[in-house]
Amino acid sequence: MKLKQRVVLLAILLVIFIFTKVFLIDNLDTSAANREDQRAFHRMMTGLRVELVPKLDHTLQSPWEIAAQWVVPREVYPEETPELGAIMHAMATKKIIKADVGYKGTQLKALLILEGGQKVVFKPKRFLPKPYRSSLVQECSYSRDYVVEGEPYAGYDRHNAEVAAFHLDRILGFRRAPLVVGRYVNLRTEIKPVATEQLLSTFLTVGNNTCFYGKCYYCRETEPACADGDMMEGSITLWLPDVWPLQKHRHPWGRTYREGKLARWEYDESYCDAVKKTSPYDSGPRLLDIIDTAVFDYLIGNADRHHYESFQDDEGASMLILLDNAKSFGNPSLDERSILAPLYQCCIIRVSTWNRLNYLKNGVLKSALKSAMAHDPISPVLSDPHLDTVDQRLLNVLATVKQCTDQFGMDTVLVEDRMPLSHL
């Protein structure tokens, strides 16, 4: 064999060797990642049901200290949380030592301080007993079966949606939503005695029911939240530690909320290419967080994420924090596919998210969500139509990803952005 032929043959063999080695390593890495995803899913399912227990047996720390120590740049709480039941019990039962109007925003809420100095946000159930509805106070009753008509972002905040969204965050393995639990509060004995003048001035009585309307952009005396007598159902969201200040960002796929005026993403199918050229979406995990959030919001029916928060000074490395999920679970019959625009326009998704979604097929998601919320103080948190819809929406998400993989291939669509799993 001539020298030139030998060189060519060696070059071909070298290329084959390198390709085979890379292919095998990639397969091993992918297989290891998939095995870890499967193990993580089983761990989540094992610890899904959270029973609210009154004390922590193995530590002298307060529940507030433990929850604060959980927070890191990429998660609000860790994968394994044996103390979660005690923390949520404290959120649902600890004495309220101060009550004030909520932080600025468009929807009614109250800022409470619980015993031990922990700040929480209280979102009330919008309820007014029928015998006491009048022309003075507009009808504002949300039962579990209430269907919000109109635009996908219409209606008041739903307190139960906050509870359900938190548990969905656990099930999806994102761990980016602050802790939320349902709570019953006596407005007359627990809130009014410790309320600030600003909050107290918004209290009124309708029939035999105590009501308040708070301070916010859409808060009106004619649209209060009313207790059933003095007892008000609501949700409690744990305030993130002050050592983790938040930074607000305009969502690149936000709506205009103006009739007849479309946002660019609503008419420009190449919009994602422009987003990829702007910070912080041009590098780091933020764009993939946007995709995760689109999946999360679609499952819960939240078309109102016009802004989002991350931790300050993070240079794009912080997670997208899943705050304010109460415009969810409004209409189980409405599938607002445009919520998925980041997914179907960018056609990328994390491998770990894709794996988790597939594990939740065939009714597993509905069952898991129902089980996770079973011990909440306001259980049942969601009606059956909402639970059924979540399962159907999951299939729509999977179908959307399949359309992407059919068009661009799995290697392009499924993105592995985890740290190397060297310990496997």
DSSP strand content: 5-15%
Q: How far apart lie the N and C ends?
A: 46 Å
Which spans have pLDDT < 50 for at least 5 consecutive residues? Answer: 15-28, 128-141, 419-424
Report the biggest beta sheet as strand number plus sense, adding barrel if it closes.
5 strands, antiparallel
Shape: globular
Strand order of the largest sheet: 1-2-3-8-4
Percent helix range:
25-40%
Q: How many beta-strand runs?
A: 12
Order of helices and strands: HHHEEEHEHHEEEEEHHEHEHHHHE
* Number of DSSP helical runs: 13
- Radius of gyration from CA coordinates: 24 Å
Q: Could you say which structural class the secondary elements and strand pairing correspond to? A: alpha+beta
Task: Please tell me the overall pLDDT.
Answer: 88
Subcellular location: Golgi apparatus
Binding site for ATP: 107, 123, 237-240, 309, 324
Organism: Myodes glareolus (Bank vole)
Protein name: FAM20 C-terminal domain-containing protein
Can you walk me through this structure?
Its cofactor is Mn(2+). ATP binds at residues 107, 123, 237-240, 309, 324. It comes from Myodes glareolus (Bank vole). It holds the Pfam family Fam20C. InterPro entries: FAM20 (IPR024869), FAM20_C (IPR009581). The protein has 424 residues and is of the alpha+beta class. Helix content is 37%, strand content 13%. The chain contains 13 helices and twelve strands. The strands form four sheets. Strands 1-2-3-8-4 form a five-stranded antiparallel β-sheet. Strands 5-6-7 form a three-stranded antiparallel β-sheet, with no helix packed on it. Strands 9-10 form a two-stranded antiparallel ribbon. Strand 1 (96-101) and strand 2 (110-114) form a beta hairpin. Helix 2 (63-70) packs across helix 3.
